[in-house]
């Protein structure tokens, strides 16, 4: 899948902005962002943020959009937000860190290496 930056004028819509977090974290991590070009091609969308505050997702996206002259509402980014709730199962250490290897996004314990995979 090709990728494109979110301010590229070839981007018609953002179809999925997948976010995830652990229960005790005040931020959502961006797992991935996908969109559609005017040609109909599906693409990965690069966004200028990797984390968004849980209490102000829309406001933070709007700030980035304003800074980069992007019409966020026109891209349908707010309708595309998918919040992946924290898993019920964690390792006993609870010291999880978001990681990505190729297209696989997961949380991994820094102490024991336990992995929890997300599927948005």
Q: Can you walk me through this structure?
A:
- This protein is mainly β and 120 residues long.
- It starts with a strand and ends with a strand.
- It has one domain.
- The protein is globular, with a radius of gyration of 15 Å.
- 19% of the residues are buried.
- Strand 3 and strand 4 form a beta hairpin.
- Strands 1, 2, 3, 4, 5 and 6 form a six-stranded mixed sheet that branches.
- The mean pLDDT is 86.
- The longest helix has 11 residues.
- It contains two helices and nine strands; from the N terminus they run βββββααββββ.
Topology (elements, then pairings):
Blueprint: E1 3-5, E2 11-20, E3 27-37, E4 42-46, E5 51-53, H1 57-67, H2 77-80, E6 81-84, E7 96-101, E8 104-109, E9 115-117
Parallel strand pairs: 1-4, 2-6
Antiparallel strand pairs: 2-3, 3-4, 3-5, 7-8, 8-9
Q: Outline the biggest β-sheet.
A: 6 strands, mixed
Give the amount of beta strand, in percent: 35-45%
- Low-confidence runs of at least 5 consecutive residues: none
Please give the radius of gyration in angstroms.
15 Å
Identify the quaternary structure here: single chain
Distance between the termini: 17 Å
Mean pLDDT: 86
How many strands in all?
9
Order of helices and strands: EEEEEHHEEEE
> Structurally, how many domains make up the residues?
1
Broad shape:
globular
Question: What is the overall number of helices?
Answer: 2
Residue share in helix: 10-25%
Structural class: mainly beta
């Amino acid at each position: 899948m090709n990728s494109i930056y979110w301010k590229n004028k070839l981007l018609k819509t953002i179809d999925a902005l997948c976010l995830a977090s652990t229960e005790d974290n005040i931020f959502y991590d961006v797992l991935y962002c996908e969109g559609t070009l005017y040609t109909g091609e599906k693409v990965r969308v690069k966004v200028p943020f990797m984390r968004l505050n849980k209490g102000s997702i829309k406001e933070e996206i709007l700030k980035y959009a304003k800074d980069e002259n992007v019409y966020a509402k026109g891209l349908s980014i707010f309708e595309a937000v998918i919040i992946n709730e924290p898993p019920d199962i964690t390792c006993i250490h609870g010291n999880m860190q978001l990681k990505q290897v190729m297209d696989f996004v997961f949380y991994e314990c820094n102490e024991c290496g336990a992995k929890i995979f997300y599927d948005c």
